Amino acid sequence: MHTKTPLSKGSVTHSTSKGKATTRPANAAIGFIDQLLNKIPLPRWAIYTIFAAIILIFLICIICICAKCCCKSKKKKKKKSDDQINLQGVNGSTTTALVQPGSRDGDYGSAKNRGRLLYSLEYKAPELTVGIKQAAALTAMDLGGTSDPYVKVYLTPNKSKTFETQVYRKTLNPIFNEQFKFEIEKADLSESTIVMKVFDFNRFSKHDVIGELRLQLDSIDWNHVIEEWKDLSEPSKFEDEILGEICLSLRYVPTSSKLTVVILEAKNLKSMDPGGSSDPYAKLQLVLDRKKWKRKKTSVKKCTLNPYFNESFTFDVSFDQIQRVQLVISVWDHDKLTRNDAIGKIFLGCDATGNQLRHWADMLSNPRRPVAQWHHLLSSEQVDSTLQLKHTVRIPIINKNF
Ligand SMILES: [Ca+2]
Ligand SMILES: [Ca+2]
């Protein structure tokens, strides 16, 4: 067909015009392909069909590969932004700029991102003002990828008041701009923790906790108004449910080495039995050098959440030992048929903190005088994790001659 093309090849090299130079080789290429096709023992339409099919398959392959790559990078991006926000929580206070999702490239494992909260704190005796400003990038708890967030604010351990913001429907970035005021003496600030808990409202089911902020107020410089973003963390393992309070009196007489503990009463104990009651009793345990040393217990008071015990226990504790001993008091619910349930626990001693330490110190500085005080019960797990008791393991001796 195009038999002339090989002849024109010579003139191409001498041509000064660039346009001509490109058209000539093109013609040459077409001629070459034509010759090649002539050599294939198939009709032209069959060759074209095969070519079209090959190109089609090739295109489909490319499209598939592209789609897969895109999906992967999207997932990776999402994961990165999730993890990155959580990392900020570890560092404590952050700025808005730092916690922008996707602003950093690192892959920080699979810790769950819960979002972040902008809050403010101000103390002007005797009023603590907590501002819940806004939240961002909250976790979606509902189908459809949204939540209905609101925030509960309270102080622990004296959880007398709990405030709540409004519920914002279907958003992960609510703007609350609400303020709550707590009356609290400056001396009590050092023992208190402010809890800001973000929930997802659900009309027909239990509200889900999205995350929380827990700030110990003793570490805050009250000369300034604090306003900052913080990453929400996992809700505390030790849920501050109300376990109740216990009142006890302590008396130490150094000359006779007698420690007298009077378990006076308890109130608002958590109900452990069906029917909304408990059968409380208290266990007293002395721990010396992290080992269980002496133990006693009160009688069981049937079917009450406000038991009155007024039972006295005296231990021999030398002056040297009183510096190292810890008094662990736990309140239990007695069950006839099943295992007794722990309601709550506290410990007093030189290693204790807050209210408990104060009570112990009052006892030591007032020898021979009984000092009575109320204490909020904490969960057993919480107290045990603080005490980290060495449980004495008794190995049975099988061979008596040993
Ligand atoms: Ca919801
Ligand atoms: Ca019971």
TrEMBL record:
Residues 1-20 have a biased composition (Polar residues). SMART domains: C2. The keyword Transmembrane applies. PROSITE patterns: C2. GO terms for cellular component: axon; dense core granule; plasma membrane; synaptic vesicle membrane. The keyword Thylakoid does not apply. One of its GO terms (biological process) is calcium ion-regulated exocytosis of neurotransmitter. Residues 113-230, 242-375 form the C2 domain. One of its GO terms (molecular function) is phosphatidylserine binding. Keywords: Membrane, Repeat, Transmembrane, Transmembrane helix. Residues 1-22 are annotated as: Disordered. The chain crosses the membrane at residues 45-71. Belongs to the synaptotagmin family. PANTHER family: SYNAPTOTAGMIN, SYNAPTOTAGMIN-8. This is C2 domain-containing protein. It comes from Esox lucius. The gene is SYT8.
